[in-house]
């Protein structure tokens, strides 16, 4: 009996002998599975209950005690603990009890919220965990790896992480990297038919069981199918899981003298102690923003101690109970106790909203980084484009060009029509044909046969649109009577090559009557084209007898693929090859077959290249199709190198494939442009194809002649040109390329390095195994969730669940929204702290008859304000929608972080205003109306002499509460007036608080009309801040939208209203007011508290107006002469060209 390791919550997985010693039929019979149909849904549920999930014990899961210790150890709690201790020490048990309750409540609420948040983050991360392609109920589907069960039929290909231990029954040149198990760096070649006669499990090592693939190994080459035999802790990896789950220590932490000399033990121990202290205090653990805020917390703690010393000094260090209580008040006032909890919840909510916008966050640091991205390096296929290719043109030497028209379904070979036309022999002839067609379309566009005097580009665009409409009309009118062109020998040879040198499948489902495809989009397009002529691979193999002998998979280094097939009823072998045109042409000795066969001369090669260029200029991806006779024996185990096979080829033709841009790509690129983000397209396509798509989506201007010659020359490069340059030459370029064609993995890494040398903050997309280095090198690595390999996902920071470029823009917008909101609620919390400190420090001069300072606010009033009044509006600010111009301004600086010059200046200005207003109220009541009656010992409790002080405290408490609440509404925008926020109320409300209102999540924008003379403030803002005029004119219909603007964020609105009303019971409830808060009911003093609101609002509005008027702290403008040079082109084309080349 060969048992697998036991698994918690599941049974052991046992076999008579280890599956590598069993035949495939024996394994199938033991697991009750079916190679053709896979497991049924009912059987899967049974197996999942029987064996549990396919994961290792101890994977993931947040530890509750770690979260609890994190809550206890932050500086906000520590200062409260200090205040509690002092309160008990001076026998003020009421205050000490309340502070104790606040500590317990704060820890419990913070623990619950963060524990739930961490669990939610774990669940979100699991969405980006490795996936498996399995056959279930007769259909291929993709499931998370944890759902794989013994008996599943699993498909694997290059780049996949193997989800479970598999007994292979089919493979083609399959190799896997098993160094995680064996330590051997060389991939292991697999062999389904390997024999192990006379061997057993003990004498055959893991690396020698070549008919088995192992969980967590990576497929480095080829493809295969296998039966899942062990899952979870029963896998080979599960047997060493405990040793694999240990955490990696940081460098120089060793305690061995062998690693660092005699002093290494002392050095390692000290560093370990520092790591422990730093982690406990939050200084070395967490995201960059969390570490910055932890440092802020301890700086504030030091400030609290400094303030306490100041209090003691003013009282000549005669530290009585009263003096100690005052020191407690100042210490509590400077600490924003709820800051960490607000930040954690805001970030977790942000991760949830990212998930709704098709983005899974794998690293919290990516949330902070997204808003500062200045450059996006994106792949083309499937990201900027739809990733569903259609064979639009096929050039057959000596025959002509086959065109596919009106094909609206990439998977359906019956949709659309195929026509045959002559191929232009030169570019001059092609231009002549285009001119003739344009004249014909001009006639059809105008009943009067008038010619239109239009710009050339616009005329050509209208002609293309009219041509498409005419094609559609022609196809609709003639669909029934048009027939597929006959299959001539030249076309037959082309179809055989495209069909057989192909791994894609195309079939019509009998039940749904839908055409279903599997495989690479490029191969699907070629396979569908072959099916149009009833020459699909399945028919050729199963009905006509073609038999595959060998396969040389596509290799990114040589950019081609080849297969060997035995010709039916003939004793000869044909090699079929497809790949990049320039890689195939050099291997060809002839062109065409039959009577059209010609020698591949230099003149002929140039003719082929010209045909390729004409196809590429139409935005088509061009592939070359070739074949040759092979005189020798060849099979799957032949040692014949591909260099010997892929030579002396005959070129059969060129295929032009079209991958149309996604409908939302142009808008997404436009948003990047207006947001000061440059988009770079790094693609493996031909330069002409890449250039055509880049122009179509607006990455580069359609008329490069409007740019300076050196800039225009640098915008489009091939990988060979770019990689051939030294770093100094790249740095000397006026602009880095926006399009790199024929891109290799190393090219992406060099591009990231070049961007970093220019001080840029770059995001990089990737989907393959070879993209992992560039994803790691980028500031934000973005993996494709649908088409990406598990290796790429593991190296990334975020994963796009829809592989859509627009989702990257959504993520950046969401990152900017979160950054803005974090700034807003940090400002909101710190402004109140500054106001309280100013009030209390000034209050040191208010001394009673005993010489003790009388505090204008009691410690419990401060706690009430900081914990309850400020916290919920801060949560509300964290849920604010995106600012109207959030994607119309440059990226923020990740070096400065949230504490920008504007935030620091606003904090001081608003804090001083708040402190001055409350201080003035206290002075008016005590000195203006009551001749300075400060009473006796009013810090300790109520007595008749303290009536005036208690009434003044109540007024200051109400006033400070309301000013803080008013500031929450004012901070909805740091620059705009509260009465002119410019929120678009026609946009449906978004629960996330994001500004997204359209389908792809981009910001809605009202028209970009120029400011009029009646809008002097907005005109000044536009001119001083350099911002574009999109969504910057609030309330265009002239109506007053203040209430609607405030009510738009319902959480914030009700947090402010409820906190506003809570002041009245806090002031009037007997016992609570005098014993806890140390204030009493008031009458006429309410007028001062109410009046201060208007004074505060006026002062805040005046400061905002000054910032707008003089452009203080405004985002740096990013429109320049180059942008204006392409403006006419941009408006005419209806798409945005790249902005900000020459910042």
Automatic annotation (TrEMBL):
Zinc-finger keyword on record: no
Primary subcellular site in the record, as a coarse category: membrane
Residue span, Cation-transporting P-type ATPase N-terminal domain: 18-92
Main EC class the enzyme belongs to: translocase
Catalytic reaction(s) noted: K(+)(in) + ATP + H2O = K(+)(out) + ADP + phosphate + H(+); Na(+)(in) + ATP + H2O = Na(+)(out) + ADP + phosphate + H(+)
UniProt EC number: 7.2.2.3
The keyword Aminoacyl-tRNA synthetase is annotated on this UniProt entry: no
Topological relation to the membrane, as annotated: Multi-pass membrane protein
Domain of life where this protein originates: Eukaryota
Keywords: ATP-binding, Cell membrane, Ion transport, Magnesium, Membrane, Metal-binding, Nucleotide-binding, Potassium, Potassium transport, Sodium, Sodium transport, Translocase, Transmembrane, Transmembrane helix, Transport
Bias (Basic and acidic residues): 428-445
Membrane-crossing residue ranges in chain numbering: 72-90, 96-115, 296-317, 323-349, 825-846, 858-877, 898-928, 948-969, 1051-1069, 1081-1100
Subcellular localization(s) per the UniProt record: Cell membrane
Record-linked PANTHER family: CALCIUM-TRANSPORTING ATPASE (PTHR42861)
Record-linked NCBIfam families: ATPase-IID_K-Na, ATPase_P-type
Protein name listed in UniProt: P-type Na(+) transporter
Lineage: Eukaryota, Fungi, Dikarya, Ascomycota, Pezizomycotina
């Amino acid at each position: 009996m060969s048992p697998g390791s036991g698994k918690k919550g599941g049974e052991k997985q046992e076999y008579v002998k280890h599956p590598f010693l069993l035949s495939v039929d024996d394994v199938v019979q033991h697991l009750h599975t079916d190679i053709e149909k896979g497991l049924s849904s009912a059987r899967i549920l049974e197996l999942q209950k029987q064996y549990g999930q396919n994961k290792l014990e101890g994977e993931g899961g947040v530890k509750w005690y770690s979260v609890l210790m994190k809550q206890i150890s932050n500086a906000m709690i520590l200062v409260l603990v200090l205040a509690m201790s002092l309160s008990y020490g001076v026998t003020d048990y009421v205050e000490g009890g309340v502070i104790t309750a606040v500590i317990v409540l704060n820890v419990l609420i913070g623990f619950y919220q963060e524990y739930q948040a961490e669990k939610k983050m774990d669940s979100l991360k699991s969405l980006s965990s490795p996936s498996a392609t399995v056959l279930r109920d007769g259909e291929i589907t993709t499931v998370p790896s944890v759902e794989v069960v013994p008996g599943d039929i699993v498909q694997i290909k290059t780049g996949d992480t193997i989800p479970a231990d598999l007994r292979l029954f089919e493979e083609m040149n399959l190799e896997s990297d098993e160094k995680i198990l064996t330590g051997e760096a060389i991939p292991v070649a697999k062999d389904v038919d390997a024999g192990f006669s006379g061997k057993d499990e003990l004498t055959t090592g893991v690396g020698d069981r070549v008919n088995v693939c192992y969980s967590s190994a990576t497929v480095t080459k080829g493809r295969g199918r296998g039966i899942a035999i062990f899952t979870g802790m029963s896998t080979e990896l599960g047997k060493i899981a405990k040793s694999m789950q240990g955490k990696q220590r940081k460098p120089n932490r060793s305690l061995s003298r062998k690693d660092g000399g005699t002093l290494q033990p002392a050095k390692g121990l000290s560093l370990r102690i520092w790591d422990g202290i730093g982690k406990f205090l939050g200084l070395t653990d967490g995201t960059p923003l969390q570490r910055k805020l932890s440092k802020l917390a301890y700086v504030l703690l030091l400030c609290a101690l400094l303030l306490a010393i100041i209090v003691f000094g003013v009282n000549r260090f005669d530290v009585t109970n009263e003096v100690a209580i005052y020191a407690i008040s100042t210490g509590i006032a400077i600490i924003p106790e709820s800051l960490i909890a607000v930040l954690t919840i805001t970030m977790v909510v942000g991760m949830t909203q990212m998930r709704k916008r098709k983005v899974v966050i794998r690293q919290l640091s990516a949330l902070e980084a997204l808003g500062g991205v200045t450059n996006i390096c994106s792949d083309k296929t499937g990201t900027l484009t739809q990733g569903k290719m259609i064979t639009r043109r096929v050039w057959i030497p000596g025959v002509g060009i086959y065109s596919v028209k009106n094909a609206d379904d990439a998977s359906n070979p019956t949709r659309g029509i195929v026509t045959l036309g002559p191929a232009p022999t030169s570019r001059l002839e092609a231009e002549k044909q285009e001119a003739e067609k344009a004249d014909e379309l001009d006639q059809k566009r105008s009943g009067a046969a008038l010619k239109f005097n239009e710009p050339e580009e616009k005329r050509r665009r209208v002609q293309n649109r009219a041509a498409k409409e005419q094609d559609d009309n022609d196809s609709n009118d003639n669909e029934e009577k048009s027939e597929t062109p006959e299959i001539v020998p030249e076309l037959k040879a082309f179809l055989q090559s495209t069909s057989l040198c192909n791994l894609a499948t195309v079939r019509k489902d009998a039940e749904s009557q839908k055409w279903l495809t599997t495989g690479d989009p490029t191969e699907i397009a070629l396979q569908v084209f072959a099916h149009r002529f009833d020459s699909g691979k399945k028919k050729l193999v199963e009905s006509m007898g073609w038999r595959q002998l060998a396969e040389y998979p596509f290799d990114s280094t040589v950019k081609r693929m080849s297969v060997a097939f035995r010709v039916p009823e003939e004793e000869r072998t044909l090699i079929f090859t497809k790949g990049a045109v320039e890689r195939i042409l050099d291997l060809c000795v002839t062109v065409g077959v039959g009577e059209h066969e010609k020698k591949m001369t230099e003149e002929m090669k140039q003719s082929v290249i010209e045909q390729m260029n004409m196809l590429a200029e139409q935005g088509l991806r061009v592939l070359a199709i070739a074949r040759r006779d092979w005189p020798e024996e060849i099979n799957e185990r032949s040692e014949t190198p591909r260099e010997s096979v892929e030579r002396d080829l005959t070129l059969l033709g060129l295929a032009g494939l079209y991958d149309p841009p996604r409908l939302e790509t142009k808008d997404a690129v436009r948003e990047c442009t207006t947001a000061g983000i440059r988009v770079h397209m790094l693609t493996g396509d031909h330069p002409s194809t890449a250039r055509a798509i880049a122009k179509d989506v607006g990455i580069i201007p359609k008329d490069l002649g409007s740019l300076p010659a050196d800039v225009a020359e640098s915008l489009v490069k091939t990988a060979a040109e770019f990689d051939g340059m030294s770093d100094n030459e790249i740095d000397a370029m006026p602009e880095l390329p926006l399009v790199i064609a024929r891109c290799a993995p190393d090219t992406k890494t060099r591009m990231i390095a070049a961007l970093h040398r220019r001080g840029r903050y770059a995001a990089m997309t990737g989907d393959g195994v070879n993209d992992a280095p560039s994803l790691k090198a980028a500031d934000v690595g973005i993996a494709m969730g649908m088409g990406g390999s598990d290796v790429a996902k593991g190296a990334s920071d975020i994963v796009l669940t829809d592989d859509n470029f627009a989702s990257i823009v959504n993520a950046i917008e969401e990152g900017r929204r979160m950054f803005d909101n974090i700034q807003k609620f940090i400002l909101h919390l710190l402004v109140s702290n500054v106001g309280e400190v100013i009030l209390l420090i000034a209050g040191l001069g208010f001394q009673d008859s005993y010489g003790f300072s009388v505090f204008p606010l009691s410690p419990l009033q401060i706690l009430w304000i900081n914990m309850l009044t400020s916290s919920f509006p801060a949560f509300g600010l964290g849920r604010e929608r995106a600012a109207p111009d959030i994607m119309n301004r440059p990226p923020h600086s990740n070096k400065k972080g949230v504490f920008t010059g504007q935030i620091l200046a606003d904090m001081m200005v608003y804090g001083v205003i708040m402190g001055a207003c409350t201080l003035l109220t206290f002075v008016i009541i005590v000195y203006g109306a009551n001749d300075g009656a400060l009473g006796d010992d009013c810090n300790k409790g109520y007595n008749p002499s303290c009536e005036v002080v208690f009434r003044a405290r109540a007024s200051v408490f109400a006033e400070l509460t309301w000013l803080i609440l008013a500031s929450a509404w004012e901070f909805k925008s740091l620059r705009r007036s509260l009465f002119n926020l410019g929120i678009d109320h026609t946009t449906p409300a978004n629960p996330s608080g994001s500004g997204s209102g359209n389908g792809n999540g981009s910001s809605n924008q009202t028209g970009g009309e120029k400011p009029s003379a009646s809008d002097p403030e907005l005109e000044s803002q536009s001119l001083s801040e350099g911002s574009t005029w999109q969504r910057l004119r609030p309330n265009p219909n002239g109506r007053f939208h203040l209430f609607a603007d405030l009510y738009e964020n319902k959480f914030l609105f009700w947090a402010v209203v409820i906190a506003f009303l809570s002041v009245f019971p806090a002031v009037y409830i007997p016992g609570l007011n005098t014993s806890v808060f140390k204030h009493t009911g008031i009458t006429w003093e309410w007028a001062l508290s109410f009046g201060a609101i208007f004074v505060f609002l006026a002062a805040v509005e005046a400061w905002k107006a000054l910032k707008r008027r003089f452009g203080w702290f405004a985002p740096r403008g990013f429109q320049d002469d180059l942008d204006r040079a392409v403006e006419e082109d941009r408006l005419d084309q209806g798409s945005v060209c790249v902005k900000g080349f020459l910042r």
